[in-house]
Design brief:
This protein is an all-alpha fold. About 75% of the residues lie in helices and about 0% in strands. It is elongated.
């Protein structure tokens, strides 16, 4: 039999990620995890010393994935337009497309980590938060580029505006799961994009 240690570790991480979003980390048992992943308990402990090590691996795994996604969205938007305002709208449109036809109730692993912050080492919560801040900083960078090109009204804080996509995105996850309306995530992203579009159409502010 050909062994695939990398594949085994990936299966454990993917199964664990799904279970954390659905049940919370505290509600995930190792027995249930290995059953869902289709691996033995020995295989689990070969890759992870315990749930604490698994928690760090899950967050690091998804942090790496998210950074790749972010870089891809920025790259695609910059290829499609040289206008930072248009790039912001493109990024939101691409995010909306990703949730146009969800097959299951979604959730955010990083938000789940925050909800159960007492279960984790503070460093893990900080790591999860850094991913959310990275998404936020992506928008802030683009907003600053847009503001330099055509200033926003002086009474609007770019930092506060930059928080909006992630605040609405995470809130949409909660609404989708609690109200069983999966379409709400894509709809909220498109509505926010439309609000940004209206803002971008306002007369330039004097600064």
């Amino acid at each position: 039999m050909v062994r695939d240690p990398v594949g085994t570790r990936e299966r454990i991480l993917e199964a664990a990620s799904e279970m954390v979003v659905r049940r919370g980390f505290a509600g995930m048992s190792i027995d249930a995890l290995v059953a869902q992943a289709g691996v033995t308990k020995g295989a689990f402990f070969h890759h992870f010393k315990g749930k604490d090590a698994l928690a760090r691996a899950i967050i690091e795994h998804h942090a790496a994935q998210d950074y790749v996604i972010m870089a891809d969205l920025v790259s695609r938007s910059e290829k499609m337009s040289r206008d930072p305002r248009q790039q912001i709208l493109i990024i939101m449109g691409l995010l909306a497309e990703a949730f146009d036809a969800p097959k299951d109730y979604p959730g955010c692993l990083f938000a789940s980590t925050a909800f159960e912050s007492g279960v984790f080492d503070p460093a893990l919560v900080e790591l999860a938060g850094s991913v959310l801040l990275a998404w936020r900083d992506l928008f802030l960078k683009k907003l600053r580029e847009a503001d330099a090109q055509a200033p926003f009204p002086a009474d609007l804080s770019l930092d506060t505006i930059a928080d909006m996509p992630m605040v609405i995105f995470e809130g949409a996850f909660i609404m989708a799961r609690t109200t069983q309306r999966l379409h709400i995530i894509a709809a909220q992203m498109r509505t926010l994009a439309r609000l940004f579009e209206v803002l971008f159409m306002q007369p330039q502010a004097d600064k």
